[in-house]
Amino acid sequence: METLFIGKNMLFLPEVESTNTYAMNMLRNVNAIDGTVVYTDNQTHGKGQRGASWNSQIASNITTSIILKPTFLSVDDSFFLSKISALSIYDVLTGVLDNSHYDIKIKWPNDILVNSKKIAGILIENNYNANSLQYSVIGIGLNVNQTDFGPLEGIATSLKQITGKEYNRKELLEKLCSCLEKWYFALKSNKTAFITETYLDCIKGMNMRLSFKMPDNSVFQAKIVDVNREGKLCLEMDDLSIQHFEIKELQFIS
Ligand code: BTN
User: Fold this and answer.
1) Would you give per-residue pLDDT tens digits along the chain (254 residues)?
2) Ligand 1, residues 11, 140, 143, 247: which to mutate, most atoms within 8 A of Cβ?
């Protein structure tokens, strides 16, 4: 491993309920080392965002949780962990796929898409201590060699489905660790403006007028202009006012 701390301690579990749950329990019950990486070939109850489940074909993909202790980060800045996690996956993918042939994007807040299909998802669990973060578990599911997505066909994809090639998952996991460490150090050394600028550059639909649906099914068009400190999507409405939305408050159409 060409990293200073992320992945120096790697824990492989052939099967586990969820690497995130396992890592959170480690942090509660034993003093897990900063940068510990838990990964598995089979999650029996993989967790997705907003209470969904994350299903991944056995021994085909990356299902990992990375333990970080970002005690330098205030609670108000915790969305930076989302940004740097998404950027790390983005970097791994641009290293593998030719950027000019494939459209690699971050779908706000932190899904990773290739040619408009989801290739990776992120689930971050944080533990706060007063006003700062005590520890975080960065859960990442990255589809690598799976080619059958069942009912998610057309919505989900993998590296192998895109290129037809088989990939070494351990090598990709190591690359992911080194990309995350690079962004984590950038965050630690306060390069927040650069992180935000790069994140916004990678956002799908940035500065574009798109159609959205509200929970009451009403549809509206607006331009994505920013993602604020809390991670809310900032939209410029028809009357030029800027409104902020949480993920559960709107759905992308198309
Ligand atoms: C999403 O819904 O997009 C987030 C998916 C996150 C899945 C990963 S797989 C490894 C880690 N352990 C889990 O239970 N979930 C995350």
Assistant:
1) 789 999 999 999 999 999 999 999 999 999 899 999 999 999 999 999 999 999 999 999 999 999 999 999 999 999 999 999 999 999 999 999 987 799 999 999 999 999 999 999 999 999 998 889 999 999 999 999 999 999 999 999 999 999 999 999 999 999 999 999 999 999 999 999 999 999 999 999 999 999 999 999 999 999 999 999 999 999 999 999 999 999 999 999 96
2) 140
Output the CA 140–ligand 1 centroid distance in Å.
5
Which atom of ligand 1 has the smallest separation from the CA of 21? Answer: 14
What are the CA-CA distances from residue 254 to residues 52, 187, 204, 210 (Å)?
A: 21, 33, 12, 9
**What's the CA-to-centroid distance between 53 and ligand 1, angstroms?**
8
Describe the strand order of the beta sheet including 233-236 as a list of residue ranges: 242-245, 233-236, 219-227, 209-213, 251-252
